[in-house]
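User: Predict structure, ligand hexanoyl-coenzyme A.
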Amino acid sequence: MNTIKIERHNRVVTVRLHRPHVLNALSGELMTELLDALRPLDADPEVGCFVVTGSEKVFAAGADIREMSGKSAVDMAAEDYFAGWEEFASFRTPRIAAVNGYALGGGCELVMMCDLVIAGESAVFGQPEIKLGVIPGIGGTQRLTRLVGRAKAMDLILTGRTMDAHEAERSGLVSRVVPDDRVLPTATEAAATVAAYGTPAVRAARECVDRALETGLTEGTLFERRVFHALFATEDQKEGMSAFLEKREPNFRGC
Ligand code: HXC
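Assistant: Predicted complex:
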């Protein structure tokens, strides 16, 4: 693999974006390598969480401008450029973005496809595509608006300004801000915590939370309740509740 590095520790898989000469710009090759690497891991019951990170200096400075710059509208449509990233969004394994430095354009959009976002004090978020004569193209106009609201999304997308980690946390884009050198350890600890819970409940929780962005309250609460009922068919539910009553740690088996 040329553009990413993968490490696995027990149930946690860490993916490091690695194109340092272009600030981890998200090229087609990077997307393909990332999806090819994560696809089998997403299907592996022994994997409980992904951590996606960049370097200590940059998460990703966006889609690869050099790669895109010469393409025509016909090329873009024929390739359905960026459509592949939706596969990342549809993976069922929870994922945590660990962000140091720039998360711009496609980098910010990749962050928004993650479930938790741990940001360092130095992190910088933005959708500066307007400065290139285009708009966000990997879901930025849609996900940012849902996550931070129309007023803030319009501000970022129309002016191209960036926001720091604290503003991003206040706005609802970031889960936690930590010192820069604590980003990866914090993300990894959170990933290990999530990965130790029962897979059926973790997957159900993610799907229900994300459903809130897709549907109305009545439909959403009904969906949640039905999923909640269904979890009573799992051994993990019996184990979790028995362990509580027996004052011991649960041993979830993901079934
Ligand atoms: C390709 C990139 C790049 C990118 C940086 N580089 N970002 N190459 N695609 N997105 C390259 C630079 O050309 C440069 O290469 C090297 O990385 C270092 O970058 P510098 O600009 O010299 O670094 P610095 O001065 O520290 O500035 C950092 C930065 C700036 C503020 C992050 O690089 C920047 O503004 N980058 C572009 C950010 C952006 O516009 N992102 C959105 C992309 S569009 P050389 O060879 O000169 O050393 C997108 C979705 C588009 O994501 C959707 C359209 C359909």
